[in-house]
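Internal ticket #5521
Category: modeling
Description: The requester needs a full-assembly model to guide mutagenesis choices. All entity lines are attached below as received. Residue total reported by intake: 970.
Assigned to: D.W.
Attached entities:
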Amino acid sequence: MGKYVLKRLFIMVIQLLGVVVFVFFILRLLPGDPAIVQAGPFASEEAIEITRKEMGLDKPLFEQFIAYMKQLTKGDLGESYVTGNDVADDLRIRFSATISLVIIATIGATLIAIPLGIFQALHPDSLFDRITNIYGLLAGSWPDFFVGLILIYLFFYLLGWAPPPDGKMSPLIFPPKFITGSYLVDGLITGNFEAARSAASHLVLPSIALIISYCGVIMKMMRTTMIHVLESDFIRYANLIGLPKKVVRNYAIRNALSPVISLIGIRIGVMIGGTVLIEQVFSLGGLGQYAVQSASMSDYNALTGFLIVACIITLVSLLAVDLIQASVDPRIRY
Amino acid sequence: MSRGKTDRNKSGPLGSMSCLKEPLVTKILEVEHLVKNFPLKDGQVVWAISDVSFDLSEGETLGLVGESGSGKTTIGRCLLRLIEPTSGSIRFQGTELVNLPKKDLRAIRPQMQMIFQEVFESLNPRMTVGDIVDEPLKLWTNQTKGTRKEKIKQLMSLVELDYSLADLYPHQLTGGQQQCVGIARAIALNPKFLVLDEPTSALDPTSHAEIMDVLKRLQEEFGFAYLFISHDLTAVEHISHRVAILYLSKLIEIGRKDEIFRSPQHPYTNALLSSVLFPDPNITSRPFILCGEIPSAVNLPKGCFLYKRCPVAVEGICDTEFPKPRDCGHQHKVYCHNLDGSLNYFQKLIREKVCK
Amino acid sequence: MKLFLSMGWETIKKSNLYMFGFISSVIFLILWAIGPYLAPYNPLYSDFDSFNLPPSSQHWFGTDQVGMDIFSRVISAPRIDLTIAFLANIISVVIGSILGVITGYYKNWWSEALARILDLIQVFPSFILAMTAVVISGQNIQNLIIVIGIFNVPIYARLVRSKVYAVRESKFIEAAICTGNSDRRILFFHILPSSLQPAYIQFSVVLGWVILLVSSLSFVGVGVRPPTAEWGAMISTGVPQILIGHWWIPIFPGLALGLCVLSFGIMGEALNKIMDPTRL
């Protein structure tokens, strides 16, 4: 197992390198001149030329790449043209908001979708199955930001249960000391429970919106694989020799779980994209909002930095999923 | 079309036990020291065929028998170079097939064909029966559409298919009909040699009998040489002139059908025959069951592969090297160190059974 | 073809869901063709005397904050959304199929490398990458189509590749080799037709995803720009409005967007079912 983890970590480093190369070159090889965007719409030729020099864009591409890689080994992602801060710092501040949303939504969606899918598969064509099927169809069709909007309308405007979508926590409360960056966790650690409560309540609606959007896919997958497994010969045999229903069911669940787990891993990358939109709606001030802002400003360093971080998150979660799977599924050999 | 009937076909299914010399016929296929192994990731290799040699004459059927995993299907596929043999030599009508350039190989393809075990999967689901049978004609002859159509009609009637089926798709046919389409396609270019890879094992008994009859009739009419791969000994007994027995990637006994079935020499052949009931009273059933498990094809044992399971194994000989072939006359070759022991052992067994 | 159509119709007729998806898809296609002509108001005309009006008999879906008629805008939007989605999807399906066949059929290092790269792109948070690419290459509809088209290539490449893998190993290919087909004929005549099926069956489903992607990009302001009638952009302008209770401004375009994606999704399922009736 240890050897397998090491091997996977090694592969991950290579993948990451590939990602960096890919991101760096694709951003720079695309048609469009960042210097022009950067210098502004009314800049003169000279001003653009100066900006280009400042950004180091006048050097050959390969040289730029070497310089960037050198920076990167020191953990330096360069400076954001827009905020003027170190990109690494910018990302660090915003990281926790995004990651807590992703974690909560992934766990929530998994915990809800898998039992629902199992129940559906055990009672196919029941009323419950039909209702959840319709939900599954609907959930995949509406964008998560739209779900978020409806939630805001219902729970903030109409019912008044939720706080307004005005950030990570109420602006009226004094934020806790920066430790992890997550106001919820930092509030709990420093004993600033008011802040923690407010931060938690601000996370509820965005998490629900993401869960509603992502539950459907996982549920559908669980249902299909489970039905497939239930029709397989070894389950028939288990029923024939009269094993208790519960035991048979557990056999089936264990076998159906594996592909579902890998689907969840793949969906995390998609979910990060979704988080960007959700953050936008709830103005959560996470990586997503930062990315949108950098993208609309053509902030190369910020974008490259963000993409690298996003890929790290995706790759790490894929690794985690693979490890979970390796420990659950005896067919996977290290 | 050549109608080379051989004398052998007329001598009836059981032939004669006499020591008369075989009529001289041209060898169509000579396989020498054929080896195929599949490397594993960890550097080990799986042995599918290790050092197998045999030959095949015009109009002759060689039955290739062995349990699943013995490498018989791999031999068939290697002969047609559907997979590349690791080493050895395959001479087809004097042409060396191993390492033959792709272009030349393709030119030879029409002369050697295959009939598949996976009846349905071997037919392109998007082509009609007519198209399937037409394909080889279209590729290899310059005939017009009209003449080809006549030829398709002729071919379909040869395999007892009604021409009205020509517009149907494979999934609309029965298993037996599908196999007939496969046969019609294979014989369309009048090949010299056909590999029959368990052609009936996926079919029901009725279609099985029909297909066997069709194959036998076609051979009598056109003089095809067959390599009949099967684990069904009764079918092999029915169609073959000679039989080769495989055990774990090795050839262990080869000879004329009557020799193999009436006086099997190798302990494994004895065991194999004792597992089947023959309707033929001339074939004595043997009350013998082989114990133990087949060794792994990855770590082949040093001596005879049957050593640990063999009732007449001799320590110090059988576990040191694989036996060399011993000639028992009439082209009957056996790969066994202790032939006499085997003979005595099984004769005793049969006597005991008869006494009881 | 005739057989296929009648078989398809039979399958659709049997299921209420498929019927719903079929009718709804047809409606969206009609709106795509003639939507702007059906609109009661000019979708780009802002009437400053009547802004933020709730739904009424005059303005069925109400008006937005600059007084544009939301109903007119909602039914005009398929023109732009579906055009982008169709063109982008065609780019993806063509390039994806070609790459899928190449990476599936050839077993050498560069096809392996290509396959790995395609896999890697799929792991990316593609939405963000697409967003970035659109901004940098210049935010216009042409670039939007190209970028989305390219970023969805791996979906089809993967589908086709795995099918090519399966078909390549099948017995009828072996039979075709025995018959003496040339390599090229095997690839184009025997492997290709069977391998492309999953790609074109999936076309409709992916079309829905692409519409989602277009509107998501517009929502964050890097796709189609307001005041063009586009669902995502319309929802985006409605975000501040919903906080003060003007729900109709984002909700109606959102509902139309989801309905459209849903319909194409259902049509995709129906197509799957027609092609392979044994499916669950």
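Resolution: model delivered.
Comment from assignee: The mean pLDDT of chain A is 83.
Ticket closed.
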